Amino acid sequence: MDKEDIIQKTIAFVREELSEAEGGHDWWHIKRVWKTSQQMAQKENVDVLVVELGALLHDIADAKFHRGDETIGPAKATSFLETIDVDKSIIDHVKNIIEHVSFKGGNFERTFSSKELDVVQDADRLDAMGAIGIARAFNYGGFKNRLIYDPEIPPKLNMTKEEYKKSTAPTINHFYEKLLLLKDKMNTNTGREMARKRHDFMEHFLEQFYNEVGERFFFQT
Ligand code: ADP
Ligand code: NI
C-alpha cells in the first residue's frame, strides 16, 4: 500500500472511531493537529509519514474518556496499522508518540524522545491555545459539568500528574494550570513561533474576562 492509501485508510478509521467524541476531541481536532503537523514537518527534519500517522492517531482512545486507561489508544492504533500492513518500525514509533504526547500536568517527565513526537506534541498543544483552545476548554468544562469560574477557588499552580488528573476545578483555572504554560513547553522553533500569537490572545481574553466579572486580574506567568 502506498503512503497516500495508508493516510486515507487511517483518516477513515479515525473518523469512524471518533464519531461520538466530545467536541474538543473530535475528528476536527485531529484534522487541525494533522494539518498543523504537516506544516511544521516541512520546516523540521522529520519522517513525514510517522508525523502524519502520529497526529491522526494521537487521540484515538484518550485515557480521559476511558476510565484513565492509557493502554487502549496505543493498542487500538497498533492493531489498526497492522491490518493495513504498515512497517513494524513505523508502528512502534507511532505507538510511542501516542503514549507520550499527552500533557498530564506540568511535572511529567517525558521518557521517549523523537523529532516526530516533538512536532505532533507541539501541534496538539497549539490546538489547546488561542481562540480554538479557549473554545475547547469551555466545551470540555461543560461536558464535565464544571463551573466556568468560582472566585473562591483559586487556580493551583504546579500540580503533580495525579492532582492534575483528579482536578475538578472551574474551567477558568485550567488556563493557569495548563494553557498559559504551553508556550514555554514548545519543542520546536516553528511551534514556539506559532504559539506566541495564540498565547497573547489568551492573555487578552483573560484580562477582558476578569474585567467583566469585576475580579482582580490574576496573572502570574
Ligand atoms: P493532553 O492530552 O495534552 O493532556 P488534554 O487532552 O488534557 O491534553 O487537553 C485537550 C483539550 O481539553 C484542551 O483543549 C484542554 O484545554 C481541554 N481540557 C483538558 N482538561 C481540561 C480541564 N480540566 N478544563 C478545561 N479544559 C480541559
Ligand atoms: Ni489531541
TrEMBL record:
PROSITE patterns on file: HD
Domain of life: Bacteria
Gene3D superfamilies to which the protein is assigned, alphabetical: 1.20.58.1910, HD-domain/PDEase-like
Residue ranges constituting the HD domain according to the UniProt record: 26-129
Pfam families found in the cross-reference section: HD
Protein name (record): HD domain-containing protein
Source organism of the structure: Splendidivirga corallicola
